[in-house]
């Protein structure tokens, strides 16, 4: 169809202009003004390509039940064609407006309506993402599709309701979905399961429910991380006994085959030490973590602590039995690294535990200018060795 011109604008542009004025009144909750403006609009179900919404959907998002009732009484369609953004039901779920939801459902809204190409998901997914527990409960009772993720012909791959709920501020919402049969093994678009999200956000109750559902405690993200490894990043130490009780490997490293970036294959102990999470390290030691486990480049947690200057953590590790003279693959002890980085507090702690600057067998093997005398700390070659510089 050719555009109809009205002065300098097309009929479509004129309709869009009137529609925008009406939508603004809808957003402001001005029922009287909307009632007047509706007389100027030829199609109450007009879908705005600019805003990707209808008047009814906009009213539902605002949660104004009087506005929704007005639009319904004037012929607004609850179920429109697929070329749209969020439906009225999806918007009401997104905003947590239960009364509007019930009104729409009474007037024919479909719980499992397929989302449009500009939609952010099903009504259940929208409600779960924002942690609206009562609305999720309502939709589940009405047989909403809990696992709904991909719709044929859609360019979107929506994350399941469980993943969205796990990422929300409402832990009970995710637990509710689990109790109604949500699959604990589904993943986010970035490859995390709900268990990994719970570990990242420190959600204890959710983690227990997930483990009770049979999910493996050492299941990995697409990046090769376990829940314990993720918890170590954020310092959620109270998750350690829970994961351990369900059989998590306390000494697991990141999966080298899955991880696409450079990584030294650290355990949770190394990671927590680097990040300075003292209570996390304490709980790991208490749970039986191998205190002198090494990364792929030979670093123990103590060597990591020395590199980052975490003197309190070093004392904690040493009291837990860490080898004070352990070296990395380049033969450097924690004390050597502490001196190289001029960390006085760290040096003091290590010295108080009898640390040697050089690992004894290595020190005895150093040869300078044809003799076998040990290097002096004042020798520039010694300084170069401590700092890891290549000397020819």
TrEMBL record:
Coiled coil: none
ANK repeat spans: 51-83, 84-116, 119-147, 223-255, 264-296, 297-329
Keyword Repeat: yes
PROSITE patterns, sorted: ANK_REP_REGION, ANK_REPEAT
Cleaved signal peptide residues: none
SMART domains per record: ANK
Keywords carried by this UniProt record: ANK repeat, Repeat
Protein's recorded name: Ankyrin repeat domain-containing protein
């Amino acid at each position: 169809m050719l555009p109809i011109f009205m002065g300098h604008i097309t009929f479509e542009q004129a309709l869009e202009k009137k529609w925008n004025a009406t939508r603004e009144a809808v957003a402001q909750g001005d029922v009287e003004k909307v009632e007047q403006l509706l007389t100027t609009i030829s199609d109450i179900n007009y879908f705005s390509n600019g805003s990707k919404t209808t008047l009814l959907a906009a009213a539902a998002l605002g949660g104004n039940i009087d506005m929704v009732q007005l639009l319904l009484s004037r012929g607004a369609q609850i179920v429109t064609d697929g070329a749209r953004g969020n439906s009225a039901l999806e918007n009401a779920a997104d905003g947590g407006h239960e009364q509007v939801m019930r009104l729409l459902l009474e007037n024919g809204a479909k719980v499992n309506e397929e989302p449009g190409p500009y939609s952010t998901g099903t009504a259940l997914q929208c409600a779960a993402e924002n942690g609206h527990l009562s609305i999720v409960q309502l939709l589940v009772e009405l047989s909403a599709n809990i696992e709904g993720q991909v719709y044929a012909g859609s360019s979107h791959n929506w994350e399941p309701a469980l993943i969205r709920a796990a990422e929300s501020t409402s832990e009970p919402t995710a637990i509710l979905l689990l109790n109604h049969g949500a699959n604990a093994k589904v993943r986010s678009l970035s490859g995390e399961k709900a268990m990994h999200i719970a570990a990242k956000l420190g959600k204890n109750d959710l983690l227990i429910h997930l483990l009770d559902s049979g999910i493996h405690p050492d299941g990995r993200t697409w990046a090769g991380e376990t829940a314990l490894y993720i918890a170590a990043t954020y310092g959620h130490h109270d998750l350690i006994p829970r994961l351990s009780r369900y059989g998590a490997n306390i000494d697991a490293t990141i999966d080298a085959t899955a991880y696409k970036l450079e990584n030294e294959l650290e355990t949770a102990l190394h990671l927590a030490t680097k990040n300075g999470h003292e209570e996390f390290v304490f709980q790991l030691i208490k749970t039986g973590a191998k205190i002198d486990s090494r990364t792929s480049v030979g670093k123990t947690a103590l060597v990591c602590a020395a590199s980052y200057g975490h003197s309190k953590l070093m004392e904690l590790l040493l009291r837990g039995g860490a080898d004070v003279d352990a070296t990395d693959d380049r033969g450097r002890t924690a004390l050597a690294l502490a001196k190289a980085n001029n960390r006085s507090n760290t040096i003091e702690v290590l010295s108080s535990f009898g640390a040697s600057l050089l690992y004894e067998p290595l020190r005895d093997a150093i040869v300078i200018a044809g003799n076998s005398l040990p290097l002096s700390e004042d020798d520039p070659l010694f300084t170069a060795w401590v700092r890891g510089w290549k000397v020819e």
